[in-house]
Amino acid sequence: MEKDTKNIILAAAKEVFTKKGFAGARMQEIADQAGINKGLLHYYFKSKNALFNAVFFEIFDAVSPELNDILSAKDTDVLTKIGQFVDRYMEVLLKNPFFISHVVCELNRDPNRLISSMLKGGKIPNPVPFLVQLQQEAQEGKIKETDPFQLMISIVSLCAFPFVGRPVMELILDMETQDFLELMERRKDWIKQFVQDGLRP
Amino acid sequence: MEKDTKNIILAAAKEVFTKKGFAGARMQEIADQAGINKGLLHYYFKSKNALFNAVFFEIFDAVSPELNDILSAKDTDVLTKIGQFVDRYMEVLLKNPFFISHVVCELNRDPNRLISSMLKGGKIPNPVPFLVQLQQEAQEGKIKETDPFQLMISIVSLCAFPFVGRPVMELILDMETQDFLELMERRKDWIKQFVQDGLRP
DNA sequence: GTCTATATCGGGATAGAC
DNA sequence: GTCTATCCCGATATAGAC
Fold first, then answer.
1. Domain identity same for A81 and A130
2. A161 and A184 together in one domain
3. How confident is the prediction for chain A on average, in pLDDT?
4. How many domains are there within chain A?
5. Residues with Cβ within 8 Å of residue B141, at least 6 apart in sequence
6. Chain D: nucleotides under 7 Å from a protein CB?
7. What kind and span of H or E run contains B51?
8. CA to C1' distance (Å), from B88 to C13
9. Could you give phi then psi for residue B73, rounded to 5 degrees?
10. Same domain (yes/no): B79, B144
11. Is the pTM of the predicted complex or chain greater than 0.70?
12. Residues of chain A with pLDDT > 70: what percent?
């Protein structure tokens, strides 16, 4: 069962890396979680680093091109694109609610490890077409004039930050993780409405 | 020079923890950064854990009550409060641009360590007065009706996320850290304007 | 208070039996 | 392919001289 074991390992690694971060994760714990032993981990992945990269790119490769396509589409106005982007991005975040904080964490710790791999894969999102379109539609008076960089950053922030700040939120707002996920489910529509309101001319 | 050495250590620790995270940080590197040796670290702080907590609370204790006061003030309307909050919060973030990602990272890794200490200090921010006020002013028609939770989360997200997502942003938008900080400086006013626009009735 | 030297241990990685 | 046993480095923490 080579393929199964490998996938079991990947799933276990995803969970442990997510909870503990790269440096905090233990190969032993990943092995336990997968129901195997450390030796076998190194049989499938030659190092902790290789295992981490495998986990990361499994998600990244699936999501990045799709989001890129949404923002680069022709013949779709920006408000529609923003709606599609928020829907899809939040969907991914909800499906992997603990992973993004891990990625953020690793990027801050050792930006080169992930970033050089991302560059190698050549699948870096390209926001330029979307930024240009924002300016165009603003000049046409379809939306309020605003700094496109700041807006792009804000859309991602509104979606992603709650997931990285989840432990604090759960503390301050006194809620369980289940409540948090429901709040995020409702948040999709809230963000779309809020951005749309903010862009009214 | 006991006091000086202690502060030098705290500053060095802040920098190294910030760059590497708790698990990734090395006591040796902190000692090097401070221009002393490992033994002396343990003279002032009995463990790595104690050192980390000291660094965290130096910042947290200074900022948390102040932000709390802004949001709880009487006789100030919500839009003004939001402006003050954004200004002050962004100021702190700009002053410690690498620290929040570290805190987020640690909270996700081991929520209990920091959270139990925060509870012990008794200085947890209390958003309830602000949330109530949001609903009141919405009913009075001063601002658009909206989910107060979602709005509160969004204000914090708009300020904080760029700092945790900085490495990715610098990659995608192809900028240096200096450019990033200037972008954040301008962002203060942008956020205030955007939230205000989004809350127009 | 500050240093050097060292005890101790945890964890990534490897060797080799089955 | 999967397991056990072990190597060995690196990092926290301590002991003790100055």
1. yes
2. yes
3. 90
4. 2
5. B201
6. 1-6, 10-16
7. helix B48-72
8. 49
9. -55, 145
10. yes
11. yes
12. 94
